[in-house]
Amino acid sequence: MVKTEENGDAAGGNLEPEQYRKMFIGGLTSSTTDETLKEFYSKWGTLVDCVVMRDPATKRSRGFGFVSFSKQSEVDAAMANRPHIIDGKTVDPKRAVPREQSQRSEANISSKRLYVSGVREEHTEDMFKEHFGKYGNILKCEIIADKNTGKPRGFAFITFDDYDAVDKCVLIKSHMINNYRCDVKKALSKEEMAKVQQQERERMDRGARSRGPPMGRGGGGWGPAGDRGGYGGQPWGAGPGGPGGYGAGGGGQWGPSGGGYGGGYGGGYGGAPGGGRGWGGEGSGGWGGPPSQGGWGAPSGGAGAGWGQGGGQGGWGTGGQGAAQSWGGSGGQSGGGGWGGRGY
User: Fold this and answer.
1) d(CA 169, CA 161)
2) Cα 187 vs. chain centroid, distance in angstroms?
3) 3-state secondary structure of 130
4) 219 and 332 co-located in one domain
5) FRET label pair with 204: which of 82, 133, 258, 319, CA 20 to 30 Å apart?
6) Over 176-237, what HEC string results?
7) pLDDT of residue 234
8) Do residues 230 and 126 share a domain?
């Protein structure tokens, strides 16, 4: 790890929040070192920190690293001068996401499309263009309306010409537009969602192998799991799920613990994330119930009620093995939704 003399300024609290000054650099060659990164990125500003992540045991590069600048504007300058070629290879630079967000597999996926929730009738597309135009060049802005009433359905999509604009918006997360709070997330295509879900399955499989044979099917976490979930309807969700609306699948905040630096980083760069589920443990529903059962330790057999895993057609955690249900969502095969309903 390379630390510069400017770290004294950071200790004195004179720097902007690190989340706005830090970059993730993926796709590094095995020969790239801390000094190589420092030499390359120092051309755009003052580096406060620079590190290539390595395996603790073998000390071999894990294929990614991080650099921290002294100002957000220096990150902007670096991102504006892509592509970046280090040691003869085009690398994958992105704005680093906070630790709590990095455990989500979608953090490793680049998207040029932004999902905006909290849209009101008072909002117009011009308002969104004016607000989000500060972060990048907008190609398309659409407020999704009900086909029958013409009223907004509560969400919108913004398409930029560069994924970095979406990353900048997501770092802020909540935006005040016309005095109303709107939250943002990356809008992923069906193919990208399938990739996220596959990554989650692989993470859980690796974790299960490291802990021994799984106890059963089903998912951990507070909430029941469903085949479909609303967009982002999974802060307490469980397990990966089948294809569905935005936000289906994937572990929630209390879901799989990640490997790499700060959680989920390094999934595609040679990292070896650990497993780990929510409050229920591997293969269990609810608060530690038996495998593929719902409830608080409900007996084996037909139905298990309570907060745990549910049945195919039940509501809030009713009956059966295997399939489970979200609040108002549709049942499915041991999928992962959250508290949301059917996706868009």
Assistant:
1) 14
2) 11
3) helix
4) yes
5) 319
6) EECCEEEEEEECCCHHHHHHHHHHHHHHHHHHHHHHCCCCCCCCCCCCCCCCCCCCCCCCCC
7) 35
8) no
Residues 273, 235 within the same domain: yes
| Rounded to 5°, angle at Cα 141 from 137 and 146 | 170
**How much is the pLDDT for 139?**
98
Residue 102 lies in a domain: no
Interacting residues of 292 by C-beta distance below 8 A, sequence separation 6+:
216, 217, 218, 283, 285, 309, 321, 322, 334
Most confidently modeled range among 89-93, 205-209, 223-227, 290-294: 89-93
Q: Looking up tokens 């004179």, which residue turns up?
A: 14
Q: Name the nearest CA neighbour of 190 among 144, 247, 235.
A: 247
The first and second tokens of residue 210, run together, are 């490291």
Instruction: Let me know whether 173 and 290 are in one domain.
Output: no
Would the pTM of this model clear 0.90, i.e. be above it? no
Asked if residue 195 is part of any domain, the answer here is no
Note whether residue 316 is domain-resident.
Answer: yes
Residue 48 has pLDDT above 60, yes or no: yes
Are residues 140 and 205 part of one domain? no
Do 47 and 159 sit in the same domain of this protein?
A: no
Q: In the chain, how many H helices and how many E strands?
A: 7, 12
Residue that wins the pLDDT comparison between 146 and 196? 146
Count up the domains in the chain and report the number.
Answer: 3
SS3 readout for 3-49: ECCCHHHHHCCCCCCHHHCEEEEECCCCCCCHHHHHHHHHHHCCEEE
Write the pLDDT tens digit of every residue in 265-299.
Answer: 554 454 433 333 333 333 333 333 333 333 333 33
Three-state SS for 245-274 is CCCCCCCCCCCCCCCCCCCCCCCCCCCCCC
Amino acid 335: pLDDT: 39
Q: CA–CA separation, 204 vs 198, rounded Å?
A: 10
User: Which residues constitute the domain of residue 332?
Assistant: 200-344
53 vs 67: CA distance, rounded Å: 11
